[in-house]
Amino acid sequence: RLVPLLTARAHPRRAAMAVERAPRWHRLAVEAAKVNGRARLLEIAEPLPYARALAAPAVLLDPDPGAPLLPGLLPATGALPRLLVGPEGGFTPGELDEARAAGVPRARLGAAVLRVENAALAAAAIALAVAG
Q1: What is the reported pTM?
Q2: What's the pLDDT score for residue 41?
Q3: Which residues contact 80 (CB under 8 A, 6 or more apart)?
């Protein structure tokens, strides 16, 4: 499931773009499902405000070298948590504080800082590999 995340650094125009791009993303999901022989489509959801994203089990991706690696925070079985990928420039200090207060753990993907679209793909691949 792909849920565009509305953060403090997300430009208001980008929120509108997320809605506008949903049909394109849906077409890409259909094409990807066909190529990979998948019976289920990737769901493209409406943009979600950051505070609401913290309400469900989640892991916040943070390139901080002090954060543990993502695979160590994912369950091997059962439902996967939301993987919160920050905007260009990362989450603001206030958003990081909000996540900490909500009990949302931070995790990193590795040593490199990735663009948001690459980080999302890498995190999804890691989550799918851990979940088997």
Answers
A1: 0.84
A2: 85
A3: 74, 127, 131
CA 72/CA 70 separation, integer angstroms = 5
pLDDT digits (tens, 9 = 90+) for 2-58: 888 889 987 666 667 767 777 888 888 889 889 988 888 888 888 889 999 999 999
128 Cβ contact partners less than 8 Å away, ≥ 6 residues apart: none
What's phi and psi for 82, nearest 5 deg?
-65, 140
Q: How many beta carbons lie within 10 A of that of residue 26, not counting itself?
A: 15
Reading across the β-sheet that carries 58-61, which strands appear in turn?
Answer: 82-84, 58-61, 106-107
Other residues' Cβ atoms within 10 Å of the Cβ of residue 121? 13
Secondary structure class of 116 (helix, strand, coil): helix
Distance CA 14, CA 5 (A): 10
- At 52, list the tokens: 């609401």
3 state SS for 19-52: HHHHHHHHHHHHHHHHHHCCCCCCCECCCEEHHH
